[in-house]
Specification:
This is Membrane protein SCJ1.26. 47% of the residues lie in helices and 17% in strands. It has 2 helices and 5 strands, in the order H-E-E-E-E-E-H.
Length: 194
């Protein structure tokens, strides 16, 4: 080897070779198909999932609105674990006026220690029922991006797993073929010592 350079053989699996087996060609096409599906299919799945999630969040922002409500009973101080997300919030009964003018009653999380009669803001849907606050545009974009990335990774993992399974089966066929060939050739290599 002059100068330590190594010659690369591009597309070696498809080249004509007397030692090339059918399984080698199948494996070459399989690897190409897996990488194409991972790159194109994963990207497409991620984009579709992110857009669907973004549309869902936009619909939630359009369907939900904040409403003033009144706490019906004193809310005790929270007894949750320190550092918990809900340590400073407690479930309370509230009353609000729906868009159709009817009085509604329901339960929601409010700040701990609120007194009866204090005003709070609750989120309601088009039917006037209490629901969760919709994510803001920036939170929705981040969550949609994460869901898209998760969809892309899930599809990629599924395709790579299926490809690995097929390659494993091709390896089993190759090993079985080698065993058959060795059974034919091996006895001809008798011990010839002189």
């Amino acid at each position: 080897m002059r100068g330590g350079r190594r010659t690369k053989q591009w597309w070696w699996r498809w080249r004509s070779n007397p030692l090339r087996r059918r399984e080698d060609v199948l494996e070459a096409w399989l690897v190409l198909a897996v990488w194409a599906l991972v790159s194109v299919g994963g990207t497409l799945a991620g984009v579709v999932a992110a857009r669907a999630a973004d549309e869902t969040f936009a619909r939630q922002r359009a369907d939900r609105e904040p409403v003033r409500a009144v706490v019906l009973a004193d809310v005790p101080r929270a007894t949750g674990a320190r550092g918990s997300v809900y340590a400073d919030r407690a479930l309370a009964k509230v009353r609000w006026t729906a868009a159709d003018g009817s009085l509604r009653t329901g339960s929601t999380l409010v700040e701990a220690g609120r007194e009866a009669g204090s005003a709070v803001t609750v989120w309601t849907n088009r039917q006037g029922d209490v629901t969760t606050r919709p994510p803001g545009p920036s939170d929705a974009a981040v969550e949609a991006g994460l869901l898209g990335a998760g969809a892309a990774l899930a599809l990629s993992g599924l395709v790579i797993g299926a490809g690995a399974t097929v390659r494993w089966r091709l390896d089993r066929r190759r090993i079985a073929g080698w065993g058959t060939e060795w059974a034919m050739v091996g006895p001809q290599w008798g011990h010839k010592t002189g």
